[in-house]
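hey team, just a heads up i'm posting the complex here instead of the shared drive bc the drive is being weird again. everything in one block, sequence lines first with there labels, then the predicted structure for the whole assembly after. its two chains so it's a bit long, scroll down
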Amino acid sequence: MDSLLHFFQSILTLKGSFEWATVGRFLFSGFILKGALITVVLAVLAQTVGTLLGLVLYLLRQAKSPALRWLAEGYIWLFRGTPLVVQILFLYNIIPRLGLVQTLQGITIFDVLGFSPVSGNYIPFDAFLAAFIAFSLNEGAYMAEIIRAGIDSIDVGQMEAAKSLGMPYGLAMRRIILPQSARVIIPPLGNEFNNMLKTTSLAIVISLNELLGIAQGIGTATTHGLELLVVASFWYLVMTTIWSLVQANLERRFNPSGTPARASFLARLLGRAPRDATPATLVGTTNR
Amino acid sequence: MSEQTIPTTNGTVPMVDARDVHKRFNQTEVLRGISLNVARGEVVVIIGPSGSGKTTFLRCLNHLEKIQQGSISIDGENIGYRQVNGKLVEDKEANIAKVRAGIGMVFQRFNLFPHMTALQNIIEAPTHVQGLSRVEAEERARALLTKVGLDHKADAYPSRLSGGQQQRVAIARALAMTPKLMLFDEATSALDPELVGEVLKVMKQLAEEGMTMVVVTHEMGFARDVADRVVVMDQGQIIEQGPPTQLFNAPQQERTRTFLGMVERAL
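-- predicted structure starts here --
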């Protein structure tokens, strides 16, 4: 019995080389929490801008002018066809040459987040800007597809009915089409944001001190790299778990007529799609 | 726009003035020169075999379909196109929307907005297009729901309504914009037989109240009872028209007789 306990203990501590106490010591450290905050801010901003960009790309693809359509297609081709890390590195090299950094750095809200060079744990603003822009541009290319799928899933009769009531295209989109598409768009959008929370860690290649960057920094300094990876993973799990709850709530809100198309919370955590959430049940519950 | 106004012989502007309308889908010409006037208060029922272009023509009347030739004006206003240096150019979206706001349309498949209750469906356009206050719009909507016999279903979502109920809400939704013209595109074709009557009753009541209506339907009984004039279309053209008694009892054209014969056999 004693030896069995010993066996498990040695696995859990990797034969004594892994210190759980160190994990505990840094789990709630101010540096780590600030890194987590940067991660959340970056993900929320990039997802928001990326989603709006996706909508713009969708509209450009519908444009009458072939030049605009090609512009959108070319954009999506470029950003889906090159690695995100390359895009991040590109922007990191481009940003300083645009002279934006100084201007934006003066804004107080960024000071609060720790971008000010005088604050103790300096978050390089040019890196933040590069990461934010890269994630947004990249996300836009993917959101364009998701938004198109959502809007295309709506029966053409809906737009015709709206038009026949005298609604111009923009109003019909905003009041009739998009709210219905939201039901179809929100589940994949939720997946995108879940990805975004974790993908922000790629910004480590430009030394942005977000969650992973800070954990890695502390890990190197204290020679407890592995323990700090566990700390970082813990906070990524906290974020994605909270997001799963928010997403479930959102999906309920956008499904007022109450057609059951939801996975259980557990299934959602494990990434399984709801069984009955096929496009056929998600759209046009009335029109057949 | 008023320069497009063309008075008829008795001096009033027709509600619908369609002239030589041609419509092509790619190579296929589905409308081959349709001219039709509908007077204020008149109920015109369009019948004809499927594929004759009657639904397409109806959709041209509120510019859900573009036309390649000819002109359509509603109450003296051109819809969809305006003259620029003698050439017809598609109108600005805002202008098209403005003319459409005065034309109600009822679709075969209802096309209610599924994310809104019956009441919300009805107040949507009055509040957002006409700029009516919510209170006024709701008052109007409830009166219309009572009119179509569905005041108790104001808060029901379309998915909880039968086909007949949905179509009656759709009629109320169109009427909420106080249209001067109503278009009905096979409004009862998607309904179970036992639900057809309740929708036709509402349509008949509207006609009796003096609404100008253009109705595409397969319901010959409705055409006989309610129409002021029945128009028969075949292969993209109007082949015959006249008052229902004359048209049903003594059709002039062979093709009309064939069509009416087929409809009768089906009953």
